[in-house]
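Project standup — Tuesday

K.O.: blocked on the structure for the chain from last sprint. Re-posting the sequence here as requested.
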Amino acid sequence: MGPVGHNLDKQLPFSWHAKGFATPSQGLEGSSNVMMDSTKILGVQIILIAAYSLIILLGFIGNSLVVYMIVRYRTMRTVTNFFIANLALADLMVDTLCLPFTLAYTLLDEWKFGAVLCHLVSYAQALSVHVSTLTLTVIALDRYRCIVFHLDSRISKKVSFTIIAFTWLVAAVLASPLAIFREYRYEEIPSINLRIAVCSEKWPSESRDATIYSLSMLLLQYVLPLSIICYAYIRIWFKLKSHISPTARSDSHCRRRKTTKMLVMVVVVFAVSWLPFHVFQLAVDLDLVLIFHDYKLLYTVFHVVAMCSTFANPLLYGWMNKNYRNGFLMFFRCQNKPERLYTEGSVRGRSYTFRATTLNDSIKHSTLNGQLPTPV
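H.V.: unblocked you, prediction finished:
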């Protein structure tokens, strides 16, 4: 699931200098908090480069494949999959506009990408996190509407695109303060005759406004959405568990249970991976991190854990959903990839099942152009 966090600016260590922290290698004057900086150790830097590179690679490939699958195959173009594609796009934005700059700034201790990217990168990554949170909430509410209230008529694809556009609009508004209240400046360090470029928050009232925004984002991006999502999935789970109609073991019912399990796992991974980072950021806002001797390394480790959520979703799809799993396999077996896949089901595409029991059988019996069976 895509990332969330209060004080999203700290997805990059922009506030490292702004909060007056110093590393031994920098020796900033006026700071009584000289801390260790294990990120300067060669071994640690190699591990960080490897970790960030792996996350970027897996996240880019996995989320690109998710989007490709939904665009390529007609029967994958369902409302739920459109929302999943939106989630994948948000994660792709994190992989391309967050992680490379995070790694560079962590290792270099200086913003070397200019004033434009100083504003753009922070805004883009905040935007992507908002979109991820809103999309996860929309998916939960959509399934709650259909399953708990027995509504067979799903929202139309046109309406789903309108909802997706609305999530980006709301996310753009919520992320805008991080683009507006930002400063790109040069900071002098006379003790070692050094001048470094810094990209940091610049609020009208530094302590009050920054804290208010941070706490607001913690509530709006983590606590409130997860509360809504948990309530929706708990109601869905009990509804599916108590289903006692004669068709309880129908393909439709089983498919709903499997899809719901997959989506619940997406939310669980999202919540667990981001919780340590949220707690640490709250400690930063309350100035409690001064008790840590290696603040920067702790921040980076928690950030790496949070960013793992960007590639976890495609892995979950491939593990828990037969459509995505078979589609991924076909993509990497390009020489055998069929132009058609055999499916059987209603004309409206509401109840598809595999006629072939294996991927090879599917390839042999493929007949429908550009389609995959059993849409989510």
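K.O.: great, moving the ticket to review. Residues 1-34, 338-375 have pLDDT under 50 and may be disordered. The radius of gyration is 23 Å.
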